[in-house]
Amino acid sequence: MTTEDIKITADRQEVHLGEEFTVLIAPRELGRGDRVVEGVAYVIAVDDSYSMEIRADSSTDEFADPNNPDDASRKQVAEAGVRELVAALPRGAHVDVLTFAQHTGLRFSGTAGELQRRGRWNGNIDDERRWTNIEGALQRAYQQLDQQRAASRRVVLFSDGIPNFGETDPGRLAALARDAADRELHTDVIGIGAGADFGLLERLAPTGLPEHVASRAGAAEAMKQITARFAAFGRDVVAGSGELSLEINPSFPVLGVYQLDPTRRRVDGALADGGGRRPSRVRLKLGAIGAGEEGQPLYALKLRAPERISAGPMPVLKATGSIGAGRDARQLAPGQIALRTVDNPMSPILQPDLKRQIDAVELDREISGRIAAAASKAERERIYQEGVERARRIPDPDLAAAYQRASGGLRDGLDPKDVANEARAASSRSSTKSKREWFQQIPVETPDEIRARRRQQSLDDDDDDEYGDGAYGSGTYGSGGSGTYGSGTYGSSGTHGSSGSGGYGGGGGSGTYGSGSGTYGAPPALPPDAPTAPPPGRGSR
Question: Burial of 249 by CB count in 10 Å (0-12 exposed, 13-18 middle, 19+ buried)?
Fold first, then answer.
């Protein structure tokens, strides 16, 4: 049995004319046998400016009392997070610790086990703690990582402020992180308190994880949970980078590009729109890829179907890609998907959770924008409460809970920016449960199967022996043959197979995007008038 290098599926097997639908794309799950390089290397960069001495639970910039052990500062919370992160890494992992303000210094270099035994490190001297130089911290961090050859190479940046020394332009700082990602150096970020610029920090993590710790009583515990998640994500990396290139049929307009895992967000700048005359193209930088289902990155496209019925499955997109970089790079076997367009508003959605994920991303973009423009606390509370109700309708209980917590934070007197940062970080966390389920094909009955099932049901109704060979024999739920869950049209060589040849051919005639055959031609098709039905209990709209 062959293994698909690139997994592609849609939220339905046929789509109504002009309707929006979702396509899910991912590289296959990787295992230890795919690993070329071993090892884990981290650089941890901790902001050491004066503002890090503010109490971790203070929304009024009140400095912590150094003589009160229960009065933790932002700096102490960050240091506790570093220890949690290091404790969760392999003991032999290489770790560098930097502290930065206007200047950056290397405070520790060794293994995770050695740092655990040591426990502490020096910081910046007093007269070098007035400013925040994020550019300097990143450049030094990437220099340190460039010296390491490991499968997983990551920077974790802790900061409670905005860049006000060195490079301060968000676009150029983001470019610094993107260039590092091209060298398989990935950046995770943790903002702390109301002064952090979460929008900037999020841009510094194009292939990493963005997080925020608000000025709440539970700040230390929140930090521990975040850094433990960071460690889990970075310690079992198989490939340091990956890329997917997608070419989309001009008949299917691209409405949005999204990442669903390991973070959930809209991906801006990845789409080159063909305008309906040429194929649209999407380039996805996957970042580091971990082992197994947990490490598999997921992406989705929101597309619109054309306003015409197709004679058979119509090619939607094809994908190529690679895992690794440079001489270690391995090309992935191309993947593709074709769907039938039909005049049927009730065409079943077989994977509704894909649309829910995208709806949640778009809702959060809207709510975050309105919060940023809101003029009063009362208005912000109304917006968050509206967000709660709309998130419940998606439904996305995690997003609803994030908005509920934000609304409560405003009532408790937290800084509005701190609350907004925390809500945005929470909304970006992946909420995917089982990735494998999304790629499992859900069978749909063909007309012949429908007729056979109805004939069998009619025979069963006439049979006086209610315990005979009826509905639970070799019919609808039979274990063999060609029943609903048998090996019929939507088996391994069905609608989404990869056989055929040609540009975006369909099945007769010729032309790049016509209905002819070619390299990316469509697999076997159902008759144009063939009705379909969802399996029992599935396909609700």
Answer: buried
